[in-house]
Specification:
By secondary structure, this protein is an alpha/beta fold. The chain has 2 domains: about 80 residues, no CATH class; about 230 residues, Rossmann fold (3-Layer(aba) Sandwich), CATH 3.40.50. Helices cover about 40% and strands about 15% of the residues. The chain is built from 11 helices and 10 strands. The strands form 2 sheets. It has a 7-stranded mixed sheet with strand order 3-2-1-4-8-9-10, sandwiched between helices. Strand 1, helix 3 and strand 2 form a beta-alpha-beta unit. Helix 1 crosses helix 10 and helix 7 crosses helix 8. The radius of gyration is 20 Å and the shape is globular. It starts with 12 loop residues before the first helix and ends with a helix.
């Protein structure tokens, strides 16, 4: 099916390449008619020392506040575990123990639907014993394999897991799957020093600075790039050897990439957001679900979104195209 675009889009060499890519696809295939609800599980691990407990509390509170106030999550859809719930009895829903993590996942398994999205955000200490990467909880820890098994019980694979702890790299190999975006603060389990990635990742959603393509939403790919660049600058400014090397995996191969430019990863993460779609697009999608005919403006909105997605795809595939095909 040939897609027709408004005249004001038919400019620039980039459009020619995009048009070729779009020829075999319909707009309806690019825009999901059934966006799901958004859930979050925030886990603040045991600090061990007052300074770390304070740090992890501030980081998890910041993320919680961003989810509710800026990203429009429903508080009822956020599960927040921390070592001492009394530190924030209004928001924290349970203690960060293995039993409570499993309980939270059981609840999510009951409530989630295949079209829903789950964001898991982990802040704390991590360890690696040569075989398993563990996220430190109050009491017995859970291994990367344990988290993989827990997530496999959920009815959705639209999962974003961000583990900002030390020694978190092996989580990618265990949890990687299609439609999932997995981010870790370290490349391997041997990077076991205290990490600083979490602050910069949170910062990515606190302003519009990370929104590279200016679509008024920060994708997971944009957030990862923002955090990585600012983390590298932080280490450089302090003249310190980087003790962490963040990775992102979104193609299910269990490998992860430190940089998404011309990498195997990043294509899916460019389309995944914590923020909701615009009210106008949500209304159009609601009409589509109910079978109500779309207005010309709504059709144009779908076409615009499809074009933007294809442009992002083209950018991601730049290294695979000849210079002539790209330009």
């Amino acid at each position: 099916m040939m897609v027709r675009f408004p005249r004001f889009w038919r400019k620039g060499a980039l459009f020619c390449a995009v048009l070729c890519l779009l020829t075999a696809y319909s707009v309806s295939a690019q825009v999901s008619p059934k966006p799901g609800r958004r859930f979050a599980l925030i886990i603040g691990g045991i600090g061990g020392e007052e300074a770390f407990t304070k740090k992890y509390l501030e980081q998890t509170q910041r993320m919680y506040n961003l989810l509710v106030e800026r990203l429009q999550y429903q508080p009822a859809n956020i599960l927040y575990l921390f070592e001492d719930p009394a530190l924030d009895s209004v928001r924290i829903t349970g203690r960060s123990t293995a039993a409570e993590v499993k309980k939270a996942v059981r609840r999510l398994a009951r409530e989630l639907k295949p079209e829903d999205q789950l964001f898991v955000f982990m802040v704390g200490h991590g360890t690696f014993d040569g075989r398993w990467s563990k996220f430190n909880l109050v009491g017995p820890d859970l291994r990367d394999l344990d988290y993989a098994e827990l997530l496999s019980r959920l009815p959705t694979d639209r999962i974003i897991l961000v583990n900002t702890s030390s020694a978190s790299g092996p989580f990618i190999k265990r949890i990687s799957n299609k439609e999932r975006v997995i981010v870790t603060a370290t490349k391997t389990g041997l990077q076991n020093q205290e990490t600083h990635f979490a602050d910069f990742f949170i910062d990515a959603f606190a302003s519009d600075a990370a929104d590279i393509n200016k679509d008024k939403r920060v994708s997971l790919a944009e957030a990862f790039r923002y955090a990585r660049v600012h983390l590298e600058k932080w280490y450089g400014d302090k003249r310190r050897l980087a003790a962490e090397k963040p990775l992102l995996d979104d193609n299910g191969d269990g490998e992860g990439s430190p940089k998404l430019e011309n990498a195997a990863d990043g294509l899916w993460a460019r389309r995944v957001y914590l923020a909701p779609v615009s009210q106008e697009l949500e209304a159009a999608l609601q009409k589509s679900r109910s079978g109500v005919p779309q207005s010309p403006r709504e059709k144009l909105l779908f076409e615009k979104l499809a074009l933007e997605q294809k442009i992002e795809d083209l950018k991601a595939r730049k290294s695979q195209l000849t210079a002539r095909a790209y330009t």
